[in-house]
Each structure stands twice: as C-alpha cells, then as structure tokens.
Amino acid sequence: MVKAGLDTNSPGNQAGYDADPQYDAIGFSQLHDSGTGGSASLSNFKIWPFASCPSFTECPTSPSSRAVPRKILPNGSPDDAASPGYFASNLSTDIRAELTTTRRTALHRYTFPSSSSEPRLLVDLTDDGLQSGYDVTLLIDPTSGRVTGDAWFEGSFGPGEYHLFTCIDFKGEGYDFQSPNEYGSWTFNSVTQNKTNLSGIYSGSSGALLTFQPATNGTTSILVRVGVSFISSAQACSNAEEEISDWDFERVHSDALAQWNELLGRVQIDPTGVEEEKIQLFYSSLYRTHIVPADYSGENPRWQSAEPYYDSYYCNWDTFRTLYPLFSLHDPERFALITRAMIDIWRFEGWLPECRGATIQQWVQGGSNADPILGEFFVKYHEHAAALNISVSDLYASLLTDSENEPGDWDLQGRQAVAWDNLNYVPDELDSDFGGTNTRQVSRTLEYAFGDFAISQVAKVIGNDTDASKFAKRANGAFNMWNPNVTLPGFPTVIGMMQQKSSAGAFDMYTDPRHCSVNDPTHSTCYLDGNNHDGFYESSPMVYSQFVPHDTAQLVTLQGGTESFIERLNIIFNQSYFDPTDEPSQQIPFMYHYANRPGLSTKQSRQVISESYNISVSGLPGNDDSGAMGSYAVFLLAGLYPVPATTQYLLSSPFFPSISFYNPLFNTTTTIKANNWAGNPVDGVGTVYISNVVVNGEEYKSNCYLEWDLFEADTVIELTLSDDNTLGCGNGVNALPPSLSTGGFA
C-alpha cells in the first residue's frame, strides 16, 4: 500500500515524481500510483526537511514557498537514485533524503549538512497531488514528537472522496534525542509555535513543524517512520510499530530488496549477446507490473471482511489485456488474492470493480473489464480454485451480475446491460431509465462482447453448456457494429468498419475511420467526455475495427480475406493508425498470425520495441497506466502476446537466447529456447522468424501459439529461427490461432 517517493511541483506529476530538473522538490510522500493518466493521484502526507530557517516561525511551509531544486548531475539530470525498495535524492540544500518501505509504513532517512544546527522536519497533512485535503485533524505530542493526523481528499479520476490517517515518529540515527526542541502547527505560511493541534476545515496547506537536536559528534541523520491507514490514526501507529519496530533502515531496505529479487527472479533470461539496454528494459518493465494493484488488506474502511482487499485498479480498461496474463505466468498467488478481492467488492458493492483508487469508485472507461480478468484467472487456475480460497459460485455469479444487471450509474460500475441484453450492442441513443453517459457506444460494445466471451469460457469450465453457448453467441455481438459500406478515405480497398448503430438497427451516424487518430482532420481526442458522441474511446475506428480477440478469423473474412486483411494491417502501421501510447492498439502487431503470416507479426512487434521503448526518462511511449505498458513490453521482449481468458499465448521470437518462467504454485519452470538466435536487428528483419517449434523433443502443432498446458509442467520449448519471413503457422489443422467461428476455444 505504501509507496514512498519524491513529489515535485511539475504540472504533469500524476504520480508525484518528475525527473525534469526544471521542477523543484516539494515533499516526500507515502502513497503513489504508477504512471496513471487523469488527474494527480495520492501523494499524501508529505515530509519535508529544512537545514535552516531564519527562525522557527519563519520557515517557509507552503509547497510553493518551501520548494527547492535538486542537485544536478554532470549529465543534466537531477541527483536522484532509485532501485526496487529504495529511493534517494540530494537536495540543493545539501540534505540527502532516502526512503524505503514495508506494506503500510514508510521509513525516511534525512541526512543534514554539518552546518545545520537546527534540523527541522515538516509534516504536510493536506497537500496531496491535487492539493485537495480538508477537514484536518492534527495532534503533536510535545514529549515524544509523535504527530498523528488525518484529512479528507478528492479522488483522482472520479466523484468520490476518501479519508486517510497517519502516525509519524522521529528518531536520531546513531544518537538519541528525547523530545523536539521546538514544535508547532502551521497553515499556509503561518507557523504557530507550541500549538499542538489543528481541527476543522482548511482550504489550503496545514501540518506540523518540529526542530530536533543535531548529533553532537558526526553526521546528523534523522529517521522518520510514517504509518498510514484508511481506518484510524491509532491503526496507522499500530501498522508502523508492528512493521518497523527496530528503526533499522538497512534491514527494511534489505527485506524489501529480497522480496523484489525473489519475485523478479521468477523470470530468467539468458543475457548472452543481448544489449544491456534490452535487459534493463525487460526487468524494469517487469518491476513496474507489480506496483499496482496494491495490497490494502486490513485497510478497507467501507466494510468488514476476512477477504483480502486490493485497491488502485486504475483502470482495468488499461490492464486486462496484458497485466493479468503476465501474472498468470509467474505470480498466481497474488493473482488469486486480487481475484478474491474483486469478488468481495462485488459482494458488498453489487458489481465487480472497473476503476478504483483510494477505496473509492472511479470512472469506467469502457466495458466491465474485470470480466476478462476473472476469466483469465479461472480458465488457467480453476483446478486450484479451492486451494487458493476462490469461491467458484461467487466468481461466476459476479460475472453474471456484470453482464446482466444494470447499475444505477454505469459510469462508475457495471455495464449498460439493458440495451446490451436486448439488442446485443449499445445503440447510439439512450433507452434506459438508469443513469450513465451516452458515449463510447462502439468501443463499449466490443468490450462487452469480449467480456461475455470470457464468461462463456468460465461457463465451459464449470460445465454449464447452456450458458457457455449463450455467452459465446452474445460475444458475436461485436459484429453487430460492422458496417460493410464504410471505406477509409484515400484507401478505397479498405472496406468495412465498426460504426455506431441505432436501436432500430440503422447505421445512421457516421464516424470517420480516421477519427481520434493522427490522421484525423478534426484533431479529436476521444477522451472521457460526456459531450463526445462519436462512439469510440481513446482510439480510432481503424484500430477498434480490429478488436475482436475471440474471433479474429471472422474479422479476416469480413475484411475481404487474408490478403486484404494483411493490406489493412500494413496501412494501420504505415499510416500511423497504430498507436503505441494506448492500449487498444496492443494486439495489432500480432494479428498477422491469423492470416498465416507470423513473420510480419514478428517484424512489427520487434519494431514497436525498437521505435517506442528505451530506458531513458522518456522511454515509454505513453503513460505506464498501472503497469499496462510495462507488461506489454515484457510480452514483446519475451516473444509472446496473450489472448486473455483463454489458454493461448501468441508466439514470436524472444529478444534473448532463452527465457524461462517459474510458477511457484506449480513449482515448475517453462523455458523457451531460441536456436540460431543471432541478436536483435533494429528493423526487426533478420534471423528472427520461427520455422519450427519443438516441445520436450516433440514437434509442436503450431509455430504461432503456445497452449497453457506447456506452462503447467516443467517444459522446454525450442524455437528454430530463420531469416525467412514468409513462413506460416504450420500445416496441421490446429496451426492457426483459434477463433470462435472456426471452432476454437472448445
């Protein structure tokens, strides 16, 4: 839950930090999300050190007045350092700040310059990323220096508010002080010495300020232990005392690093001949996939339950494609805990979560995308559901609720289910007595269809053939939005496109296929906006017309056959409709597989890495979106792409001579070896195409995908690489990746 880090005064500091040295540091806060869009998120309860002030009451306490630059390295970057479980920054005031954490507690270490005779530390209770804190309560214990407090804050991407509590203690490292030399509270830039409490509504900054005795010999380093809770200040104190009773910074850091090393070490690569940047990119991306969702167990103020509670789903729309299928490969126990937590939210709030932060609902971006997430877990781990404490009946019931019960506001949970159930698509006009925004009709239809496909797969596993058939048929509703008469302007051979449709079945509202792309003559954005009635969210009709992951074979047919399908994909790339910054495009590089041209998938997916990812500060093509971009990079580098809620991973060549995935639940390792591996050509052209796949010494059925059973046992998968990009998926009847219309996913 606690992810301590530096906050800057950048206008783009959604997650607190900005590496641009033109922006100053304003505090070291305890809670953060990872690479989200929307408004700034969390960044609560900042700590700030002062080496000196003219006097106690003249310390600049507001964020704007206390901001200082960081020291700058010779390469022009700020003097910050980070690794799993640790962050450090050297401020221009000659103070060094270091941070490490346990689950609900942060431990800070501030090392002051020798000239600092009055080291001071500020606690900011109100200035989260939105500077939204209000209704503050503050109490300073003048004997121990303990600061307890709480405030209410606005949600980052929704209408709600949350209540957060803290408990902060101070201790000299290597020396003792009994009590603060000075203490007081502050609001804005006004410090009141010896005032030990605040209570009431404050529309701006407020908190505590304390002065401590410096070390008499040697360096002055002061430890700050910050417990956080969504329940009470007393629980925040209990969290801190339980998790960091020894005040040992190095021990806490070592424990955190050990946890990260064990987790990341489940995926091993052979680095021989691989560029160092690709290795760093791989593990940095894998690291970012494990920052959120966050384990808030024991910190849910909204209901009492013995089940785990995870939060920071920001949002499932971003992560269902790649994040959770990556968890399936190497972190099933955590995936099970997240699944249980989602089901528990359904028990108490009525629907599965879609977008959630700081315990409150946030805006739904598309479909009810917890459905393919739970489908992903259950299709792969149903045999272990009981051992992992998953209620199968509740899991299935929660999926049915999402699909068939309409909530009071589908902008916050669930679906526009009445229209979906009646028409098998979302029409371009409202026909419901319930609430919700009349937007994104096409993209929501496509996501509802994929959600129902996921439900059909769960139904098959539990033996409910009636529901399996019903939901598979409803998954076909994606094609209800297919208008065969729309062409791409300037490309008359690109015929047929997903379009809006009225409840009477008429395509009476045209959306230019270029809409919301770089080729859009109107330069539209398609973000979440109640006035946006074009039918699509954050991407173009050209991209969304490729999103039917459960039946790409039918797309091939509708788009004129394999050659026309390939031509359309080529246009998507050559005319920059493919958008590496946003999730709806993610499956497109691998779609050539379905036209029996996996070599083209290999070329395009490798070019995505070469052109859009590196390890610089700007090395991501867009927001990391809670690990969505990180997990996508991991899959591309591994030579895989998942079809969520199925047993298939599409196959390409890895960027490494071999890669292995260890599954701690099965205690098994699956290794993919690339024979004839000869490096990673920048243009994706070379000895990178698969000519043959052998599994445990036996010829495999396809060169284009792997089945989940290969990851359930100790398995060696050997790929023979070639420089021939015309090679197909193989000659067997099961060589092409499955689709519903060709009898797949049976």
From TrEMBL:
Keyword presence, Zinc: no
Domain Glycosyl hydrolase family span(s) in chain numbering: 235-722
One record GO biological process: glycoprotein catabolic process
Gene Ontology terms for molecular function: carbohydrate binding; peptide-N4-(N-acetyl-beta-glucosaminyl)asparagine amidase activity
Any single GO CC term annotated in Swiss-Prot or TrEMBL for this entry: nucleus
Domain Glycosyl hydrolase family 92 N-terminal positions: 1-229
Keywords: Hydrolase
Sequence intervals crossing the membrane: none
Region (Disordered), start-end ranges: 1-21, 59-81
Protein name, UniProt field: Glycoside hydrolase family 92 protein
Originating organism: Lentinula aciculospora
Taxonomic placement: Eukaryota, Fungi, Dikarya, Basidiomycota, Agaricomycotina
